[in-house]
Each structure stands twice: as structure tokens, then as C-alpha cells.
## 1
Amino acid sequence: MNATSPTVTPALEAGVRSGIGARVRQWLGAWLPALPLLALVSVALIGPGVVLVAQTFVDANGLTLDLWGRVLGQPVNQDAIVTSLALGICSATLTLVVGAPSAWLISRMLAGRRAFWLGLLNVAANFGGIGLAFAYLATLGSVGMLTLILQAIGLPFVPPRSSSFLALLMAYEYTNIPLFVLLTIPAMGIVRDDWWEAAQTASATRWQFWQRIGLPILSPFLVAGWLLIFTWSIGIYGIAYGLAGQSGGTAVHLITLQIGTALQSDILLGPARAAILAVVLMVIASASLITYRILLRRALRWF
Amino acid sequence: MSGVDLIGVTKVFGHVRALDDVNLQIASGEMVALLGPSGCGKTTLLRSVAGLERPTSGRILIGGQDVTNVPTRDRPIGMVFQSYALFPNLTVRQNIAFPLEVRHRPAAEVKARVDQLLELVRLVPQADRYPNQVSGGQAQRCALGRALAPSPAVLLLDEPLSALDALVRTRLRDEIRRVQQLVKTTAIYVTHDQSEAMAIADRVAVMNHGRIEQVARPPELYESPATHFSATFVGSRNALELPVVNGRVVLGGAFDVPAPAGATDRAVAFFRPEDVEVTSTGAGHPATLEVKIFLGSTTRLHLLTEVDGRQARFYADMPSREALAYEPGAKLAVRIDPADVKTFPVE
Amino acid sequence: MTATTVTSVGETREPLRPARIGQAIMFVGLFTYFTLPMVAVFLYSIATRWTANILPDGYTLDWWVSAFTDQAVIGAFGSTLVLATLTAVLDIAVVVPAAYWSRVRNPRIRTIVELSAAIPFALPYLVIGFGLLQFSGIVAPALQGTFPLLVVGHAAIAFPFLYWAVDGAMAAAGIERLSEAAEACGGSPAQIVRRVVLPNIKPGVVTGGLLAFATSFGEFAMVQTIARGVYTVPIWSAEAIRSYSGESGAFNRLAAVTMVNFIVLFALSAAVVYFNRGQTVRLLPGARNIEQREQG
């Protein structure tokens, strides 16, 4: 990073006088152009977060922990939390297994072919929500294209119920794998060709290179990618809503879906329940993100 | 016996002949420098010996064994890279131990050998540091230790000093030479710096456009360049294009030498700045002093003269004490001993 | 990026490459995996009946026609486009000055912004939307459930994309040096921004804007939570998907709309890749540091 000495504009120089006025002007000079962004962030991200957390400790009678006890005691909420975590873990792990080799291969391609794959991945990574839910149904629904193909071949293929864990997992992978690949491709560049050449001249096999040099260096970034996908997955709403949003009792329970239901159908207690669940999500996501940052800092210590 | 033999080595990339029928024999224990400008093929040749490039045709022998189709990891080589290529997650000690560990040598043997190498390259205090904690010179010494760890038959060095500061470069250059002579490993050293090549090598191979133009010991290369290219590339020489008259090349009162074989009506005369005799009076070709450049013990005089109706410039080097006598604008006379003038046909 | 590196004229290194067969299989597999759903959706959108065989029984364009003459659909697309455009514009207006100032004047801006940029990545949009709803209820009840509030929400979750893209473009252009040079030539701040900064970061601004646009375009959770009255394409799609066994053709029309959604995304992605000329858009917080150290 290039450190530059701050450039002082002539206008500022001319306006400096002693006293509060000057201090305010100086402060403004350093922060003014950034204030709109900071305002946006405070109002739309930080403020809401704080309010939500506060709301979980307040009910009709004042400050209390009752809400927490009540909401976390309900089986449907417990089920939602466990299932969300399980879905996040499964999705992240599956993504890692498929995504890491893919990211490696793509990062090694020549610019033209790489651009093609990057384009494809960009589309798939951004294509989520209801549209993806429908695309899943069209492919693997009870009369989906792949279902029909497999049945026509003769396989007794029964697709998973569209509101089941497995269906959601497969749909999640459609955006998560490309997202993971796009996020980790830059890190792949960290393994340099001349290390491989040096290892070869030192008589190492491919496996020995990866075992001693490549994977130790890459693994923190891969784990970081895993954490990001995990965090992203537990917060997915659109896809889940499209597949399992209103199927009633048989649908899988997720924290996000429960929040949605609480907001839409439960006027009285809904907001409170939604707030608790939202804060639970916030806590899990924050823990994940902090771990991620620690991991990255450690990963870069050799560079 | 661990000499290297390159026989008819050719490498073609599409339409480009990176190597064009290269033949070279390197004796056991000898250090040969491959010298030339970017794109001359020196790095390709080195990498072919390493096995990182496969020649289109030709054979490569190490210690008498044909290794042309042997993969890199099975060749008895050690290589030092321009970018050091140290493994960032291993300490200096672990980097040096790497070639031995991948060969599954017993731990005690590895430790003893690594300690020996750390002493050899003088890195004992830095043994447990990581590559990002050591200086460029130390990193390259570690790379050298790693390359030598498995006692290779051939040591390959790919512009190892290019990434270093000038002062470190000289010290490390001498260090590399000291180590190589101590362990008596055959070595091939690639560089584009002619003074570096001449300082360090037993013989220098000058390359251009994928071919070896001349292979000679440094003094011979310096005194007697065999081709136009060698003459321009090695040592800083004056080059004047002169007309050929009656089979002779003449520069007024300065020199009169026979024309080179194969010359048409013009030839290039090469002579070194230190061979130019300058007087303010006396016989010789007239020239005007434009500017003096002080280089320490010598001073370089930039001289302007007329040749064949046009202006030409060349340099004369003399001890600085003598140069004090001359001021810019002075009219001088120059002479050059015919034995110091080498002529070549115009290319 | 280290795909193949050219060391000198005509020379190339052979990099680390696994078995060709394995590669080919993986890529054919991946390619099929990603395009199959789209093929399915497309066929659905032009099928008359498709319940038993590999391919539809018959083809028709009726669904496309009925979908795009439907007022609801047209309205939804209109709202979505306006929303996404406003999001991108707001983000550009807000992020570019902050990014510029953090580089030439106040590095502390960067720390705060990078920390904030992690929030939309960590917190689900649903939670942010819900929180924004509650927050606005306390602070500005008049704005609750309105379109402007939604724009603000979308801008907040999309800004990281713009920040990374613009910051990257500024780094690549060496914006600090350019600004200093412009100042030394006597330029005023306004002139510097207009004539030196903006032209040199154009690819970053466009890329970031397109990504912000794409984020808003497909966003569902926040729209459903904050602005019940606003009718975007994802909201329409959610209602259509609900009518599973209901009216015939609802699914087929949904297929047509989804197809358009996909095409828009495709165009945006192509534009993003084009503007970046094959470099990866760096989204991973911290990845930028890796790349800088790599090239440094």
C-alpha cells in the first residue's frame, strides 16, 4: 500500500484560525466527502442492527430476558436453528470440495478462456432468489427436465421433495459454488509457478509439493472461503422461500423462513420472535466473520 | 565425471527459433556463463538442461547420461532462480532441507547436511527465519544452499543477482564463485551483465538469436571478439563505420588496417577507449573534446571527429590525472595502434 | 495473474497442470450443471404441455406474449429497473467521494468503510431489512414501507461491490500520484475530480455500478420486508411460484419472466467481465492485500 503524506489544499490552509471554528473546519476537511457514505451505513446497517438487539431485551413490561427464553424454548425455533446450521455446514463443505479444484484450474487458464468461465460464474453467482427456486423446480421438480430424462432412461428416479433439506442444498450449490470460486480465485494466484519449478528441481513429486508447500499455504484461504459460504448460506431467504416458503408442515425449518413467517402472519408476537431469531443469526454470522478475519491475517503472515 | 554436453539442441515456439542448433561441452567442475541480451535463448537453454523446457530436437547429457527425456525431478541438478523461489511457509533451514526430505533421507543425515550447508553459505544466524524475514542477499544464499543440498552434478543459476542491489550483487557474485569452486560442482550461469559473466566464469558463451556466437575464456573474449555481436556486447567498445578503400580501412591519421574478409564497401572498426592515444599536439587524426566524464581513477573523454564527410563520436579513457590537462573545446590528435583495432563487415 | 508467464521473447513456462482428461471431465460437468437449469427454464417457457417426456409435447410463444402483455409483469419490471438504477446511482454518488478521499487525504476512512462493507456480507438481507423496518419505525415513521426507504436499504447492501471495484480501479490508476500531479499543475479540487479522477476509474465505476444494479435487481427479502407496496419482479415471481397447482400457465409465464431475469444478468455479467478484461473482480475482503503483495 502506498502511504502518501496528506495533501493540504490551499483553501484549507488559508482558512485556518485558532479556536473551535478552525477545529471543526479541519475535521470537516478530513471527513466531508465520506459523510454521505457513513450516514448511509449508520442509518441502514448499524442503526437497524442496534435496534434489533435492543428489541430482544424489551417487552411490554420493560427490560427482560423472557423473550429469549420463550422463543428459544419453542421446538420449531430450535429445529430451525439446528437445520440452518446443518444446511450451512453441508453447503459450505460441498462447495469447498467442488469449488477449490475448479478455482485452481480456472486461475491457471489463459485470459480468453478464463474470461469465459468468469462470465459464466458471475451469472450463476448472482442468480439466486425466486428465479433460482423456480429453475430448480423446472430441472429437478416432480416433472422437471432432469427428472424426466432420468426416468426416460429407465432409472427409478424420484426427486427429493422441493421443500426438503436435500432440495434446498442442491439449489444453494448453484449459487454457492460459483460464489466460492469467484472469491477464491485471487487467492489461488498466491501459489507461484516458480515454487513448483523449484520443487521439481529439488526432486519433489506433485503430491509432495502440494502436501508440503501448496496446501499449507492455500488452506487458510480455502477455509476462509468455507466460512464465507457458511455465513452466506445461513442467511439465504429468497431461494428457501421459493422452494419451501409455504408448504406448511412438511417444509424444512430455517431461521430465515421462520423470521419471514413471523413477520407476515403473526402481528402480535411476530416482531419479537423475528427479532430474537434475527439476533441469533447476527451472532452466528458475526462469529463466523471474526474467525474469517483472524484466519486471513494469519494466512498472510508469510507474505 | 559430471560434465554437461549439449548436442544440436533446438527449440522452436511456433515461428520463433528460441534455440538454433546449440552445441556446447562443459567440463566437470567448470562454470560456464551464458551471456546475451533478452530473448537470445540463454534462459531457454538453461531451462532445457533443467528439464523445465523440452527441446524440439537435439540431446542433452549430464555426466555422460542422456537426460533429454528424463523429467526434471529425476535429473541430478540443483537450480537457483532469479526470484529466489523460496517456499514461504518453510524456514531457511527447512528450505535447505527440502530436497533431502523429499528423497526420504534419514533425519540425522538431513540435519548434518543442512548444518554443513548453513555454514557454507554463511546463514547460521538466520537458520530459523522465514523467507519474508531475510534480506534479498540472504534469500539467494538460502536458495544456493537448497540447490546444493542433494550434491547435484550440475548447478544451474538463472540470473541469480538481477533482483539485488548493486552492492549486494558484487558480494554475492563473489560468494557464489567461492562456493562453486569449493564444492567443485559443474555450473551454468545465465546473465545479461557482461562484467558479471567475465568476473565469475571459467568460460563465457556469448549467445544471440538462439545461437552461440563465441565461447572463450574471459580475457580472450575481451581481447579478441570473434563476431560483430561479441564485439558490441562484451566490453564497452568504440565502433566506427568506415569506407573500405583499396582493401584497407583507414581513419585519417589514427590508424590504417586491412579490411576484414567479406567486407563490401564499408566496414566497422572496433577499438577500446583505453587504447586511444590522445595528444594536444603531434601526429594523429584531429578530434575535438566535447565533454569529460569523471569515473574515478579514469576519466572518459567524449570526442567529436569527422569521418567520411560526416560527424562521428567516440570515447577515449585515460587516467584522471592526465585528463586534467584537457578542457572541453580543445583540439586534440588521436592515434590507435593497429593491433588494437578489430574490423568486421557491416551487418 | 499467473496463467502462463512469458519470460522473454518466444519463451513460455509450462505451469502446474493436472491431467487433461480430469480437467475436461470437470469442466464438461460444471458447464452442464450450470446451463441445464437454464435450458429447462427456457423450454418450460415455450412448452405447451410438458409432463411426461424428455422434451415438451409442443411449442408455443403464447406464454411469452401473455406474460409481457400482463400489466402486473410490465409494472414489476418497471419498478425493478427503476429501483436498481437508483440504487446504483446512489451508491456511485456516495462511494466515489469517500473512496477518493480515503486515498488522498484521510486513510482512516478506509478502515471504517472496510469494516462496514463486511456487514452486508455477514448479515442476511432479511435481517438488515427487518432491522431497517424497525429502525425507521422509531426514527422516521413516515418513511416506513416506502420506495425511498427501499432504495436506501438496497444501496446499503450493494455498496461493498461498488467500493471494492472503485477502490481497485483507483489503486490501479495510482490516483494519489495523479491527484498530486494535477494539484502541482494548479488544478482545483472540482477540476481534479472531473478531469483526472473520474475518467481514470471509469472501469471500476461501471463494474461496481453493474454489480450494485444486479444485487438490487434480484433482491427479494428486503423488498418483501420493508416495502409491502412495492411490486418488483422477485415479488411477482414469489406469487407465481405459489400457484403451483393453480391456474394453468402460471408456471410457464414464470419461466418466461425468469428467462428475462437470466438474460439481464447475463448481459450485466458479460459487461462486468468485459470491463475488467478477464481480471477477477475482487470481492473477498483481504484478497486485495494478497494481490498487492503478489505484484509488489
## 2
Amino acid sequence: MGEEKLLEVDMGIGGITTTMRPREVGDDLHSETMIVNMGPAHPATHGTVRIVTELLGEKIVDADVEVGYLHRGFEKMCETVDYNQVMPYTDRLNYVSPVINNFGWCHTIEKLLQIEAPKRAQYIRVILSEISRVSDHLTCLGASAMELGAFTVMLYMMEARELLWDLLEEVTGARLTVSFGRVGGVKDDLTPNFAEKMKVVFKGVRDHLVNCDRLLTRNRIFIERMCDIAVLTAEEAINYSLTGPMLRGAGVNYDVRKAFPYSSYEEFEFEVPVGSKGDNYDRFLVRFNEMEQSLRICEQAIDRLPEGPIIVDDPHVALVPKDEVYNSIDGMINHFELVMYGVKPPKGSVYHAVEGGNGELGFFVVSDGSGRPYRAHVRAPSFIHMGSMRKMLLGANVSDLIPTFGMVNMIGGECDR
Amino acid sequence: MVERIRSVEQLQEALAQSCGELISKAAVELGDLVVEVKPHDLSAFLRRCKEAPALAFNLLVDITAVDWMDSREVRFELVYQLLSLSTHSRLTVKVPVSEDSPEVESVVQLWSGANFLEREVWDMFGIRFSGHPDLRRILMYDEFVGHPLRKDYPVQGKQPRIALRSPEVENTARNMRRPDLVTIRSRRSSGGEQQSA
């Protein structure tokens, strides 16, 4: 501060003066920090997470992000059931796009078994995954927009999501916990009029997206709340292990679908939207533009949907057709063996990643040769993104916490497992 | 289709050249390169993986562990997944960690993303990371007894009830503050150049 210079200040009452030290920047009035707790059940944090913030006025000077409120022991539970029985558990990871989790798990086990799902199954996986991705982004953006006051956008997006979920329901029979993946393929074929329905639904979704685009993308209030908030540069984003829209928002072109194509993604033409600054607005734009790309992939896949089986023809991996089970001894034995002991991959460990709604969704599985995973681990993008929350929040305003948390799109089930 | 610029064999060669002496085992498993590293070489190895231009594994994808119980001599195995964004290649690093001294060096200095991941491994397996700035439990609560993903922790294990905590005193950000944040005040007065957000 240098040497003390004292000022004579006229107090304005009857010529009384007092001496005081001149104020400098950062040397403001007597103040102390305040602890403000958010969550685990806060209306603005859609998800059970606790953020303890230390505030100086409105600035966040420290934050402690506490996750784990939705921990259900996914990895421990996986060790107690067979490979196909894990499917319902994976539904409950990222419950906004459960299909992607299902197929991520299937791909991992297939890699371990060194088999590949039939072409038609791969295409069905692509279609359903991309529909889920759109619904994931719609939920994320809709909820975030609502928290910033744009309630109409949320309603439009929920309506669009409803249309997409009708489509998913048509195929899977469920809306949320679909359990549609099977090791070696998928549970069911697409319904005969799926392509027609998809056309109608996509038109509806696109109409809603146009409306949302008009309401949000150039909205002054929205931009002011999003732009230049929670900036992570490309180096920082990589340093914090971010993937998905968070990493692409920072300008790094990394998409698992392009970098390590799985499930025939290399056969589709799509672009990977990339941001430039790495702020919340970039993350929003990346997510928004990804939705159109996902719809494009679906349309290409449905146009070129190959004929053929939807699950591998291997009685040790997939259930045999029912008429074989009831009419032949081999079929009966195979069915019994598979139901009782499950798929038995050879000994070994494998890591496989798919592009989830939030980023690289990886599964690490260790097999000891038995019907149950010896160890199953999920590389959950939400969890890793929450690790960068503190970095993004330091120095931001309290009000910035809401859009930042929205753009991280923390999904409790996936983050806490 | 984006080609993998570097094949697994090329990667193995590059790895052997730049840090071959640190690798105790290397194999290609199901198309992925898996290397085994001794615990005391781990942080040097990972640093070279990140910084050597021929390798450039700049993204730490994942850290997890496996509990082998009695089936192996060394009970735990840490598993690091690395990714190179420039060449789109992956590397799996396995590190055997003994039960008697379950401790390895933290890599938070190399990748900030390791912070949460290492906390999770500590929480779930009880493997300590020396030099970690803030090694607390993350998914479980502080009073939890044991480490749930160890194989000797029962699936239906019961935990004792915990005493009522006073959240204001115990769990504030100030009390949880890491040593690197003690300078926060000077950061504030020096103008928020790094905090312009």
C-alpha cells in the first residue's frame, strides 16, 4: 500500500473534519465474506448437488462442490448381476438419454467378446441414440433457459422432447427406463410405420427448434447472462478432462463418434459444431446445433436401413428364437444356460467409450471369465465436468452459477452413480 | 472417417523410445495398448506421456482401480486411461498397488481433472494419492466406514448411524478451503485479470 497518506475529509456536519486513509481499489468498506449454501435440494439446481459458496458481496471467492447425494452403488451392483441384467442399471445413469447408456454398455461387452452387432442393429442403435441425444440436449437447454426466465422456451422444448419420447416409446415400449440394448444387438426391430412417424415427429421438432432459436439465440437478456460467463479455454478444458459439448464449446474438435467411430458412425455424414471462446453461450450453441446434426444422422440411417437380423446369431450371447426353445433340445439348453449363467466373455479388461449426451461416456469392464462382471466402472462425463465447476465459478457472480450449472448439465444419476 | 493417425504398433514403438525404461510390461489387448508401470515410476511416466511431443497424451480420461483380492500377488491395480487429442490414440496404464502401502503419487499437478477422479478412487478403494490437495471422500459421506468397492466390503453392508453435524461450522467452503486458495484476498485486490468472467 506504500506510505500512509491521510486525507482531511469534511463530514458535512458543522465543519467537523476527520482524517482517513484514502480508499484504494480492492480496499473497500469493512466487509467479510459470507457463506451461502446451495442445495442439495435447491429449486435452481435441477439435481441433487450441494454447492457451498463463499461470497464477497455478489462475487464467488470460493466454492466447494459436493456430489454424491444420488450415489446408489451402480458399480458394486453390477458385480452382482450378469451382463445383460446390468442394462436396467445403465438406464438410470444418465436418465435423460438412457438408450445411449444401454448401447455404451453393449458395445463394451461386445468388444470384450470380440463380436459385432449386425448392421441393422447398429443402424437402429444409431437412430435411437441420436433421438436420445436430441432429447438430452432439449432437456438441458430447456431447463437452463427456464432458470434464466425463458419459460416459454422450456415448454416448447419439453413439447419437442415429448414428441421424441413418443417415438422412443413406439420402439422400446417405455419412455424413460427403456432397457432396450442387448449384448449383441437390440431387443426389438423398429415398428413398420416408424419411418413415417419419424418424419412427422422431426417436422414438429424442427418447428419447435426454430421457435426456440428465435426466442433464445439473439435474445439480449439470454446473451448477457450467458456470454463470457464461466470461460474455460481449450487448454483449461483439456486440463480438466472435459469432453462433449463442454470441450467442443472451448474450440476443441473432439467427438467420439468421429474420432473412434463405433456402430457404423463413419457411414453417416454429419458435422461437429465447435465453439470458439469456451463460455456458456458457446456451450449453448454447440448443444443447439448438435440437435440438427443428430436429426440429420437419423434421417440418413432410416433411409439406408439395411435388412437383416437385429441381434447376433450366437446362442452363447443372444437368446435363441422361441420356437427353437420349445421345439428343440439344443434351443432349450441354450436358453437355459444363457438365462441362468449369462453371457461369458473371456478373461480380460476393456475400456470403450461412446459419445453420450454430455461427453465421452466410457465403460471399463474386467471379466474373470464368469457370467458376471468382476469389475465395472463408468467414466461419467457429468462427474468429471462437476470437477471443473469450482474453477468456472471462482470470480463469477452468484447469478452466474445458475447458467453455468445448467450448461454443465449435471445429471445426478450419471454423476453419482 | 477420421483415420487413426498412429497405429497401435507405432504408438508402442514411440512409447518404448521415450519412456521404455519405465514400462514393466506392454501388450495390445483387444486393439488397445495396455502398459504396466511400477507405482514409483507412475508420475514420471505420466508426465512423459503428456509432455513428450511424440506421445502427446494431453487428456486424462479416467482413473479407476480394480481390487484383485487373493487372486493376484499385489492386491490393487490402478487403471489410467489417457487420450491424445492430436493423434486420436488411447493408452491404458495399469499400476499394481500393494495392500500394505496403498499410496501413489497424485497427478493433480499434471491434470486438474485428476482431482475428482483420485478422490473417487480414495473413497471407493482406499488408495491414497500423496500430494493431492484435498483428498476427501467424494461420493460417500465423511463418516463412512470402509471403502465400498473393495471386494471384502459386503454388497449389503450396513453402516453405523452418524451423529448430527452442524453444517454451518463443519462444512463451509472456508473450512474446506484448499491451501492454494489462501491467497484469494490478494488475488482480489490485484484486479480480477484471471477472473474477468
